[in-house]
Amino acid sequence: MTTKTTFAFLFTLISLLSYSQKRTIPVDTLAITTGQVSIGGKIVPYKASAGMQPVWDENGNPIASLFHTYYERTDVKDNSDRPLVISFNGGPGSASVWMHLAYTGPKILKIDDEGYPVQPYGVKDNPHSILDVADIVYVNPVNTAYSRTIPESGKEVDRTKFFGVNADIKYLADWINTFVSRKNRWRSPKYLIGESYGTTRVSGLALELQNRQWMYLNGVILVSPTDMGIERNGIVDIANRLPYFTAAAWYHKVLPVALQQKDLLEVLEESEQYAINELLPALALGGFLNYAKRNEVAEKIAYYSGLDKKSILQNNLDISTSFFWKDLLRNQGFTIGRLDSRYLGLDRKQAGDSPDYNSELTSWLHSFTPAINYYISQELKFKTDVKYNMFGPVHPWDRSGDKTGENLRQAMAQNPYLNILIQSGYYDGATSYFDAKYTMWQLDPSGQLKDRMRFEGYRSGHMMYLRAEDLKLANDHIRDFITNTNFKGKSAKY
């Protein structure tokens, strides 16, 4: 080979390598496939559209493109009264993979009945999907899944347009408007479902869609909700932890016999009443709580938490969740999971105040990551070399001005159709079921909207649907909620 030929070959090779490294994704494209799934013993045919839809700026230029997957039942002739569910996960920075591939969609992970990974990885039909009663779109915010910004040439991306409580709500409302218009779904009853931080997102979206897009909803489903801007700091935060501690301790069979022999819900009722009626007033006295009462409270916390009285006193009656995850099974050599305390972890050493890692999250990433990458490319036929971000770079996240709980209350007040369903797992230590109840109680101080709020609890964790029994139960609750809030022929008035 001559020197000239060698240089030409190297130049071509470098050019090809450079080209291959430019992992771009189309701004506006769809891959369409069809399928069917048996739900409740009946075949439901559907069309799946997976692809990108732009986010526009005020001048009509694309500034980002969001990956989404839309499932539409195909044996419905008129979709005017066919509900549409718009689904988000949380983080912030999480892809909408979790509920998509394990909860409401037509396919779910191949996992065991308690939610643990099994090989070979993959997906299977979901016999409990809500696709029989509603069409569903799973939306991935910027930098999650394949969603990305589109920076102008030579300019940095303006992060303030995407990465904050209110910025997130604003651009996603615009995106939803475009989606609903493109799919001819303006007449359909509409629902938002969000999990974890996604509950902050959809609570804010409820009012944003009404006030700026003139789009009115029938329901908002809050799965493992956050505080949504509703304060519960200080002694409220401390007291609210106890019922969750009770649930996790009951599951691991470390409560006193008198409690352990009772059903979980009976035990939780006791713990809740103690937390509200006795623990909260005692904590209000702080360091001025007298010695005898302090010891009495420590004994009760120990009774309902499975922890040692001595360590409770050493922590001034204020047991952090991270200490609880580390300490509950310390003598057995295990930590317990943050988002689902049924999961066990192994630390480098038993000493310490918090676990080395989140045992539940590593387990979930173990099974979800291969499944979603396989499913999108091989079954939904969407092809790209761009990496699927299970969690994407969205931080720092601007959390200022979070009034999303109040926004949801205002949206309900303005819209007589709008109802709320809250779903929580008893073993969730990050967004606990009792905090969810407290948020619901505080959402509307007037009490006039409480009949339009519904709470459901499950014997699992943050992603309650990973447990086979709760997958069915939780989907049935959503199905029932949608059916009962589809107000066909009923006027929206007080």
UniProtKB/TrEMBL annotation:
GO terms for biological process: proteolysis. It comes from the Bacteria. Keywords: Carboxypeptidase, Hydrolase, Protease. InterPro entries: AB_hydrolase_fold, Peptidase_S10. Coiled coil: none annotated. One of its GO terms (molecular function) is serine-type carboxypeptidase activity. Pfam families: Peptidase_S10. This is S10 family carboxypeptidase. It comes from Imtechella halotolerans K1.
